[in-house]
Amino acid sequence: MNGKNGVFVHGTAEVEEGAEIGDGTRIWRFCHVMPGARIGRGCSLGQSVFVMKGAVVGDRVKIQNNVSIYDGVVIEDDVFVGPSAVFTNVRNPRAHVSRKESFGRTLVRRGATLGANSTVVCGHTVGEYALVGAGAVVASDVEPHALVVGVPARRKGWVCECGGILPDRDRGGACPECGKAWRPPV
């Protein structure tokens, strides 16, 4: 189904009244976007993506298949969220205890990448242009431009804005992909 302002919503997707969807966004098979969710311009939501009320997705964000974005999650512009990445919103969940008033805030800053099957535990920030490796578990804040891998995620290097892995991760240098000079944060 093609909507106003170039928004595409697949016939099997459900976008509830009260959800805000930006121009040019594409929402694919079996997605569900709740009222009160905000999705920016030029985004792509892959198959079976769920966006809860109170979640915020910036412009030009690509969310791959099987990702749930819960209340308290804020994703800034130009972020890539890999297939089956996981966000949590409660640190100590119990089925018999309601903790809806204590959802932890998660912030994924501009240009960051979350690899396939990575997990971001609520209450943390993934810095600008950081790269979280596939399967990593983010249980603390991630510095801007950091490459983190493992369980729990630990910094193993630095990445350029273009996504190139920087060869001299401690002193900076030039990106092997785009040539941009860069120094790690102090």
Description:
The chain is an all-beta fold and 186 residues long. It has strands at 8-9, 14-15, 20-21, 26-27, 32-33, 38-39, 44-45, 50-51, 56-57, 62-63, 68-69, 73-75, 80-81, 86-87, 106-108, 113-114, 119-120, 125-126, 131-132, 137-138, 146-149, 154-158, 173-174, 181-182. A hairpin with a 6-residue loop joins strand 23 (173-174) and strand 24. The radius of gyration is 17 Å and the shape is globular. 33% of the residues are buried. The model has no long low-confidence stretch (mean pLDDT 92).
Q: Point out poorly predicted stretches.
A: none
* Residue share in β-strands: 25-35%
Mean pLDDT score: 92
Major pleated sheet: 9 strands, mixed
Class based on secondary structure composition and strand pairing: mainly beta
Record the SSE blueprint.
Elements: E1 8-9, E2 14-15, E3 20-21, E4 26-27, E5 32-33, E6 38-39, E7 44-45, E8 50-51, E9 56-57, E10 62-63, E11 68-69, E12 73-75, E13 80-81, E14 86-87, E15 106-108, E16 113-114, E17 119-120, E18 125-126, E19 131-132, E20 137-138, E21 146-149, E22 154-158, E23 173-174, E24 181-182
Parallel strand pairs: 1-4, 2-5, 3-6, 4-7, 5-8, 6-9, 7-10, 8-11, 9-12, 10-13, 12-15, 13-16, 14-17, 15-18, 16-19, 17-20, 19-21
Antiparallel strand pairs: 21-22, 23-24
Features:
0% helix; 30% strand; 9-stranded mixed β-sheet; 186 residues; 6-stranded parallel β-sheet; mainly beta; globular
Question: What is shown here, in short?
Answer:
With 186 residues, the chain is mostly beta strands. The protein has no helices and 24 strands. 0% of the residues lie in helices and 30% in strands.
